[in-house]
Design goal:
Layout: H1 10-19, E1 21-24, E2 28-34, E3 42-47, H2 54-69, E4 71-73, E5 77-83, H3 92-105, E6 109-112, H4 113-118
Parallel strand pairs: 3-5
Antiparallel strand pairs: 1-2, 2-5, 4-6
Length: 119
């Protein structure tokens, strides 16, 4: 995931969480804010300390970034992904399926990155 596609500021996280619509699953809570259609999409990832030690939380963040990199997204939104403690039960493939399912449900996915590169 490129640095320009990452939400970094704490006040932006707080504003989006307080004001925007959220979508829940058993393993994620996703907040989505619509912006101007020309703006680049941005993601933020938040994992609480209850999930595990820092090494494990960073591993989950790397996995989520890898999953997000496999898709192409529409422009004009900011999205915060909050990971729940139950994520410990999942393998990588299950984590990927669950996240892709909820991202497609909120209608921000344009297509697969690897399909577009080959065409």
């Amino acid at each position: 995931m490129k640095k320009i596609n990452i939400i970094k500021e704490n006040r932006e996280y707080s504003r989006i969480i307080k004001t925007c619509r959220y979508y829940k699953s058993n393993y994620y809570v996703i907040y989505k804010e619509n912006t101007k259609p020309d703006d680049i999409y941005k993601f933020g990832i938040s994992i609480g300390k209850k999930v595990g030690k820092a090494v494990y939380r960073n591993k989950i963040k790397r996995r989520i970034k890898n999953i997000l990199d496999k898709k192409v997204y529409k422009n004009g939104f900011k999205c915060i992904i909050i990971v729940k403690k139950r994520i410990n039960e999942l393998s990588y493939k299950e984590m990927e399926n669950e996240l892709n399912l909820i991202l497609e449900r909120i209608d921000i996915v344009k297509g697969e990155r690897y399909e577009q590169e080959n065409n």
